[in-house]
Amino acid sequence: MLDKPRLFGNLVTEVIRKNLCSFCGACMAVCPVNALWPIGGQPSIVGACALCEICYYQCPNVGFSKEDVETFLFNRTRRPDEPIGIYNGTMVGRAKSPEIQRQAQDGGIVTALLAYALESKMIDAAVVAGRDSKWVARPLVATKYEDLVKNAGTKYTPSPTLLGVRSAVDEYAKTRVGLVGTPCQIRAVRRIQTSPLGDLVLAKAITLSIGLFCMESYAYDQLMKAYVVGKGIDPSTITRMGIKKGSFIVWSGEQELLHVPLKEVDAFVRNSCKQCDDFTAEYADVSVGGIGCPEGYSTIIARTPKGLELLKGAEQAGYIETAELKTDAKGYIKVVKMTEAKRLRKSIRPTVSVQATPNPTCVQA
User: Fold this and answer.
1) Contacts of 335 (CB under 8 A, 6+ apart)
2) Is the pTM for the entire model greater than 0.85?
3) I need a labelling partner for 311 at 20 to 30 A (CA). Which of 121, 154, 236, 303 fits?
4) Cβ distance 219 to 359 under 8 Å?
5) What DSSP string runs through 315-330?
6) DSSP H or E run through 45
7) CA separation, residue 200 to residues 8, 16, 203 (Å)
8) Would you give per-residue pLDDT tens digits along the chain (365 residues)?
9) Domain with CATH 3.10.450.750 in the chain
């Protein structure tokens, strides 16, 4: 007997209704008849389904094989003594441009790396997270340095990144696309590139991925519309948000509008994050985060040969400066502990089968 086809309805049953959707945008980006579109912060069917099964087999939350992805990226699987995944080097660093340092998060490494990748023609477009005046994130296709600097910094709202890749390919006619994403979004990239029904156009177009350390994300309606607005803050006045030393902080320029313990916003964490065990974006070419490094710097993990090439090239060209982060350093140990904490959280939390909260948010460290 032939297996029943796995359609978008299966994703609704297995992922969306169970509140496991990470809103990566993969299913919507690959639909050949454009029948899927984001409504209320989750994928929804808005047209006639072609019954092709493609959307189902791009989802990183069903059928994701770590072993297949690791073999695809590294020609081997991880060893037990690799707690933060496979990599070619760890370091701390920052952008050398004062302009990037002022605008970007932590050390500005992500913005600087993308700027170098564009300048060196490694990529011809970068998909980053832009936002509107209410801090709702959206994928943005950046093709020049000014686009990167303008949209630098953490958004704390989810962006269906893979829809941005589709836009770069179809609307901008780009063939070498780099992207920035949280671990779930990077998993979506690798799912597309290794799935037997993967979208070959997107799989080939994504030539560089920079992953962000991510512990959790928040429901947009609860965090922004209810909590932040409830504190008397107009989202349109916010210029930057951040999580530092156990605090959630909101700024307008240099003025702090809000500085509260992180536990105060714990109730807004999305359920899909509680089922994720990847803190350091283990399947990216380069992983970057603000944990384990001095103030104003970022921790950097060079994973694939392409990622290591990018870092070396950017440093030689004067875009970044780095120093080795040894495995016995306090910073490295802190990254390992955060990684283990996220895995432990998943192992002890049951899946909650409830309808997804509209307009969820996504932390990008």
Assistant:
1) 84, 213, 279, 280, 289, 291, 292, 299
2) yes
3) 154
4) yes
5) HHTTSEEEEE--TTSH
6) strand 42-45
7) 19, 25, 5
8) 457 889 999 999 999 999 999 999 999 999 999 999 999 888 999 999 999 999 999 999 998 999 999 999 999 999 999 999 999 999 999 999 999 988 887 889 999 999 999 999 999 999 999 888 888 889 999 999 999 998 887 777 778 999 999 999 999 999 999 999 999 999 999 999 999 888 999 999 999 999 999 988 888 888 888 999 999 999 999 988 888 888 999 999 889 999 999 999 988 888 888 889 999 999 999 999 999 999 999 999 999 999 999 999 999 999 999 999 999 999 999 999 999 999 998 877 544 433 333 333 333 33
9) 220-266
How far lies 201's CA from each of 29, 32, 160, 190, in Å? 11, 11, 18, 14
Of 217, 339, 212, nearest to 288 by C-alpha is 212
Look at the block and give the residue holding tokens 């269906």: 160
- SS3 (DSSP) at 243: strand
Give the orientation angle of helix 66-74 with respect to helix 183-194, to 10 degrees.
80
Per CATH, domain 220-266 is 3.20.20.30:
no
Dihedral sign computed on CA atoms, order 187, 193, 195, 199: positive
How many CB atoms are located within 10 Å of the residue 346 CB?
14
Return the C-alpha torsion angle 27, 33, 37, 42, nearest 10.
Answer: -30
Task: Please give the C-alpha separations between residue 280 and each of 74, 272, 341, in angstroms, as whole numbers.
Answer: 17, 16, 12
DSSP 108-177: -HHHHHHHHHHHTTS-SEEEEEEE-TT--EEEEEE-SHHHHHHT-S---S---HHHHHHHHHHTS--SSE
**Both tokens of residue 118?**
């564009």
